[in-house]
Automatic annotation (TrEMBL):
UniProt key word Nucleotide-binding: no
Annotated NCBIfam families: R_switched_Alx
Record's protein name: Tellurite resistance protein TerC
Superkingdom of the organism of origin: Bacteria
PANTHER family per the UniProt record, alphabetical: MEMBRANE BOUND PREDICTED REDOX MODULATOR, THYLAKOID MEMBRANE PROTEIN TERC, CHLOROPLASTIC
Listed GO CC annotations: membrane
Keywords of this entry: Membrane, Transmembrane, Transmembrane helix
Compartment(s) of residence: Membrane
Length: 314
């Protein structure tokens, strides 16, 4: 329990330093700054694998699945890469939301910061629920496997690029709860208008992003549970990936059009972990196989995007 408290405290320190020190003043996040912070978060996450090895070596954390230190590290890194890769699709949706509500770049980091806080809470609850289900009911892993395969199929068939947040169910319901003003008031989420407290587009974007993240978590958390049911590994890999999502958004959101084949990489990853869940009681793949599939799928998507010329629309 102490390890969990220390990890959550460490995350709170990271968040406090982020908003209270490094991003105290609103400013536009340039590509160079975003690349630097992305490198920092990835380095922290990968360095944490050393902490995972130490914790499982000395028995400082509960080990309900009986993992060896080396296996625990492989599962942690694999889970982290799964969450990071599936976040790429989330980045596109966030970009659409910001564009739809005309959120200036100078305030986007603030919205994402508060969105991260909510995501940590909701994902923590979803991970606890998912791990409990898998540990109590063996058959639930088949349900997760079928769900991931369906998600992979839907990702191929659906046209997510047509998503319009202002036509969404969430936005329509939010308008019934709060008066919504069309104008921004600096970085404020609410403003007084003729004596009435109204939500600004900043708050609306925050809520839509928050609920969208929950929908994405329905894919990513079962995918990580296909790798391991150890609660600390699932939670730590997921949260550290989320912490780096903000800087990664500012880094790759401007380049999404170039990586048009990444979507197929995500389909392969989801299909692989879905099949792994379905055959988990019959086929036991070494940990390095899962890690290799994820790396190769992402690498192939990036290389194909860069090497294959885009078809002319003429």
């Amino acid at each position: 329990m102490l390890i969990w408290v220390l990890f959550i405290a460490l995350v709170c320190v990271f968040l406090a330093l982020d908003l209270g020190v490094f991003h105290k003043n609103d400013h536009v996040i340039k590509s160079k700054e975003a690349a630097t912070w992305t490198a920092v978060w990835v380095t922290i996450a990968l360095a944490f694998s050393g902490v995972i090895y130490w914790l499982f070596s000395d028995g400082l954390v509960e080990n309900p699945t009986g993992l060896t230190p080396g296996t625990a590290v492989l599962k942690y890194v694999t889970g982290y890469l799964i969450e990071l890769s599936l976040s790429i699709d989330n980045v596109f949706v966030i970009a659409v939301i910001f564009s739809s509500f005309a959120i200036p770049p100078i305030y986007q980091h603030r919205v994402l910061f508060w969105g991260i806080l909510g995501a940590i809470i909701f994902r923590g609850l979803m991970i606890l629920f998912g791990v409990t289900l898998i540990n109590r009911f063996d058959w639930i892993i088949y349900v997760f496997g079928v769900f991931l395969l369906y998600t992979a199929f839907k990702m191929i068939k659906s046209a997510d690029h047509d998503f319009n947040p202002q036509n969404s169910f969430v936005f329509r319901q939010l308008k019934k709860v709060f008066p919504i003003t069309a104008k921004l008031n600096g970085h404020d989420f609410f403003v007084r208008r003729m004596g009435v407290k109204a939500a600004t587009p900043l708050f609306v974007a925050l809520i839509v992003i928050e609920l969208t993240d929950i929908m994405f978590a329905l894919d990513s958390i079962p995918a990580i549970l296909a790798i391991t049911a150890d609660p600390f590994i699932v939670f730590s890999s997921n949260i550290l990936a989320i912490l780096g999502l903000r800087s990664m958004y500012f880094l790759i959101s401007r380049m999404l059009a170039k990586f048009r084949y990444i979507n197929y990489s995500l389909v392969i990853i989801l299909a692989f972990v879905g099949l792994k869940m379905l055959f988990s009681h019959y086929v036991h793949l070494p940990e390095w196989v899962s890690l290799s599939v994820i790396v190769i799928a992402l690498g192939a998507g990036i290389i194909a995007s860069l090497m294959i010329p885009e078809k002319s629309t003429d």
